[in-house]
Input
Amino acid sequence: MSNVFRKLATEWKLHLVVVVLVVVSELIYIREIPLGPGIILLLPLLYAFILGGLLNPNVIRRSVGGLVRSREVRAASPYIVIAVMPLIAKFGTLVGPSMKTIIEAGPALILQELGNVGTVLFAFPVAVFLLRMGREVIGAAHSIAREPNVALISDKYGLSSKEGTGVMGVYITGTLFGTIFFAIIASLVGSLNLLHPYALGMACGIGSASMMAACTGALANIFPQMEDQIVAFAGASNILTYGNGLYISLFVTIPICEFLYRRFGREEPEPASTTEGGAAR
Amino acid sequence: MTQAEAERPTINLLDHAILLVVVLAIALIGNFVGPDIPILDALPGMFILYVITMVGLVVTKYAPFYLPSVAWISLVAILVTLPWIPGQEWLGGHLEKVDFLALATPVLAYAGLAITRNEVDTFARSGWKIVVVALLVFLGSYVSSAAVAQAVLTLQGEI
Output
């Protein structure tokens, strides 16, 4: 019993910093930036992440007054998992009441996972024809690279392979910028009014819980009268992604990437050349 | 598939019971500052989320087969709010007072503070090409998932 309190006593500075970040972020609250025909919504969670990063000595070497040190950084990581639990619970409580609607929309929710094929069709040509990328593209373009996909590529090719470099690059980019990016994409695509809010809501579920929160938060502000359905569809889609995202990668998108690479990829010079990504794991 | 999936991590329920109070207290403050919901109004909803999370963790620990805690927590949350469950309207009334974005703000604050040197280095080493591909992957996944959903919903006559 006393252990957890002793732990908290050594971590008080971390939590105090988080309280300050949360208060500052919520004071700024939601802001709209008009951009061409659409808008970009800025959400408190984005400021909290950016401000947290700015205080982090790993990101900015001389961060403000050395307030946050490596001790706080190490302590912070387990709290991401703990703080995400009530968020997941909240999403679940929005899925439950809409269960009837969700079952009616079941086919769309399940088939929407095949949208991952579109991922390949978007990213692969640019990576191979424009950027002249090597086998990294198989790891990079096959999915949005959340933990299960990283585990899968690691299993199949090893993380120090080129495919591993590709998947880790997308994974890290997603960890650092995924939330920001999701908020921007969802607000832009949402404000263009091309697709129905239900469909946009379902697509919010393809990433991590924080990406989903950013995505649905942006949509809910554009379509406030449909907030409940948007969040319910996103939550349901996210649960399905946990369940079948891995299999879509394994049986559909990795084979497609492999096939396309054999047809259109550049010849690999035998023992691997030192490309810029070669050293990364 | 992977070893990580087969192994059940040990969950210290007592530690979680206390640490969850800390993160929920921070969310409660944020829920007041941003969405402007008085602390006392949001307190029952926060407590309900606390109980759902703890029940999910207990199930994760003792269930005969292993699923990650977030899966069990989702499942418990969905079950207790199904329209056929008595009392779900009462739960919903209180849960409404907790803004989901306010729950996400502390998650991202911890996440920003938790970025490791290793992550920054890996990102720097990955090279700009992979970053460009990553952004295309995110855009492509979102737009094509939404497009497929739109097509199927239209075919079904749901929208």
Q: What stands out?
A: Chain B touches chain A through 102 residues (CB under 8 Å). Confidence is low (pLDDT under 50) at residues 1-5 of chain B. The CA atoms of residues 1 and 154 of chain B lie 36 Å apart.
